[in-house]
Structures are given as C-alpha cells and as structure tokens.
Write a structure and sequence with these properties.
Shape: extended
Distance between the termini: 53 Å
Number of helices: 1
Low-confidence stretches: none
Strand content: over 45%
Mean pLDDT: 81
Length: 183
C-alpha cells in the first residue's frame, strides 16, 4: 500500500511539472563605473544595466507530437532596468525600467514612471521621445498623449499594449496594438 502511495505521488508530481510552458530566458548584467563632478568634487558612481529577455518556446502546431518538430517565432519580452550605486556600498537603487514593443516594424519603448509610462520610439538605434501614457484612477486604463494624437491605452491578456484614438483625417477611431518585441 505504501508503494502504491509513493508511485501515485511520483506520477502526480511528474504530471504537474509537465504542464508548465517552456520559456527561454536570458539575463545579462553590465556594471560601469563613472566619475562625475558634484559640488566641485569628483564622485565615483556605479551604473548597473540588467537586460532580461523572455520568450515562450513553441513548436509548429501542424507537426505536434513529432520528435524534433520545428520551432516557431514567438514574441520576446525585453526589459532593461537601470540602477545606480551612489555611495559605493554595493546596494543599487533602480532608477528606470523600460520594456520594448513593436508595431508596423517600429520599436517602441515603455519606460516606467510614477504616473505611468514615457513612450519612446527607436530611430537609428536611439530612443527618441514619442509621448506619454498616464495612469487613470481605473489603473488599467492610460491616457495617451503624442504629438500626432491623444487617446487611451491598456494591456490586453497577451500583455500587448493597445492604443485607441480618433484619427481626424479618416474621421474614425483607430487602434494600434504594440506587441512585445521579437528581437
């Protein structure tokens, strides 16, 4: 009876581990030391940049059940966290966090702020200011302001950032879906 109990626990544990979705994760950390002048004195500061990339591993559904089925491209969530160690005590304080999304082959960054996000767009490998996303009292809805339009934004169940706005030229509501970056 005891053996039957142990076998059932082993099978149940194996089954529950097999149900997790495989995720490919990569985390890199860079620490740079810089000397800057503050109040007429040279001060040494350390800056740490942590880049995390997460991508769900999926195989071609038409080849399901086959050994060595080809993998399909899935979105990669890229998050950069920038931290500073101002007094060289080994403790870093996170200053900013940015997550990258794509729309129509353009890469957009959402950088966390106290009131929501600062939106940027990558142009020639540089983050250029694009607009703001201010959190409302609803906390799930953001007021979007860019130089091209104003609208609302929210995250859907796939963690894509959806922007809805009124296009004056087309005289109709438009929707953009910023999907997690695939690079």
């Amino acid at each position: 009876m005891k053996t039957l109990f142990y076998i059932s626990i082993l099978l149940l544990g194996t089954y529950s581990f097999a149900q997790t979705k495989p995720v490919d994760e990569m985390k890199t950390t860079q620490i740079k030391t810089q000397t800057v002048e503050e109040d007429g004195k040279l001060v040494t500061k350390q800056v740490k940049v942590v880049t995390e990339k997460k991508q769900e591993v999926k195989t071609d559904p038409s080849k399901s059940g086959q050994i060595d089925a080809p993998m399909i491209e899935t979105p990669t969530k890229v998050t950069k966290t920038i931290s500073v160690n101002t007094n060289n005590n080994g403790r870093f304080k996170a200053l900013s966090k940015i997550t990258y999304y794509t729309f129509n082959d353009h890469v957009y960054g959402l950088q966390t702020t106290n009131t929501g996000y600062e939106l940027s767009r990558k142009v020639n490998n540089k983050n250029m200011p694009y607009g703001t996303a201010r959190r409302t009292q609803n906390k799930d809805i953001y007021v979007i302001t860019t130089k091209h339009y104003s609208g609302v934004g929210y995250f859907n169940q796939n963690n894509d950032f959806i922007i809805e706005y009124y296009d004056k030229d087309k005289k109709m509501m438009q929707q953009q879906s910023l999907t997690l970056n695939t690079h």
